[in-house]
Amino acid sequence: MELVTFMLFSTIEVLAVFVFMMVLYRENPMDYIWQALSVSVLMGVQSHFLRSLDLGFVAVVINLMVYVLILSAIVRLPILWAIIISGSGFFLYGIAQALLLGVIGGELLQLVTSTLFLLLSYLLYKFGLGFEAPYEALKLPREKAIVVTVIITAFALTAVTMYIQESWANILFFGGASALFLYYANRKDREAR
Fold first, then answer.
1. Cα 83 to chain center, whole Å?
2. Which member of 39, 116, 122, 163 has the lowest number of beta carbons within 10 Å of its beta carbon?
3. CA 126 to the chain's CA centroid
4. Residues in Cβ contact with 111 at an 8 Å cutoff, skipping those fewer than 6 apart
5. 126 near 23, Cβ under 8 Å?
């Protein structure tokens, strides 16, 4: 039963953050809600697994990377904007949770924070508030070369982490490498169209 409640509240939280970050930058989250829901279930599973290994801090980093991946691979935003949008939405949500932590905790904290951010998202959307993101302005001039370099570096770092046999390092680098591979595949797909 613990896994079921963990997954339920984790999924609600992931979706609330996703909706908020999209609406904050005047994007329509409903165009990608099914993809975000699928990814939120995977994020919940990895988060539960890492917390059972006392690696909850790694789950937070991986979740942030997955938000970047969703925005760059699924929503198809330039990588720098995906990082900016993910970071601003994720960290604002984190600040709200930190402020509420003194009053409530656990799953109730997730539910209350998610409800507040979904309400805030609705108000932002209803009144047309948020930021207009000039996506082409922050596009890296050699983004493809940078991605290839980072992928090669990820291979090397993965080999190193496998050698030193630290599970937290393996998880971190495998998550990063996966995100980069998917991002690069997505970029190639868009260039081919």
1. 9
2. 163
3. 24
4. 9, 12
5. no
For 128-138, the pLDDT digits (tens) are 998 887 777 65
Return the closest-CA partner of residue 64 out of 41, 94, 109, 102: 94
Cβ atoms of 113 and 90 closer than 8 Å:
no
Question: Is there a contact between 51 and 164 (Cβ–Cβ < 8 Å)?
Answer: no
Residues of the chain with pLDDT under 50: 162, 185, 188-189, 192
Instruction: Quote the DSSP letter at residue 30.
Output: G
Look up residue 112 and give its two tokens. Answer: 């209350």
How is residue 187 written in tokens? Answer: 């970029």
Cα separation, 183 vs 189, in Å, equals 10
pTM for the full predicted model: 0.73
pLDDT at 148: 57
Question: In 3D, which of 150, 183, 188 has the Cα closest to residue 74?
Answer: 183
Q: Taking the CB of residue 3, how many other CB atoms lie within 10 A of it?
A: 11
Residue 110 is predicted with a pLDDT of 94
115: CB partners within 8 A, 6+ apart: 16
Answer yes or no: are the C-beta atoms of 87 and 46 closer than 8 Å.
no
Query: Amino acid identity of 98?
Result: A
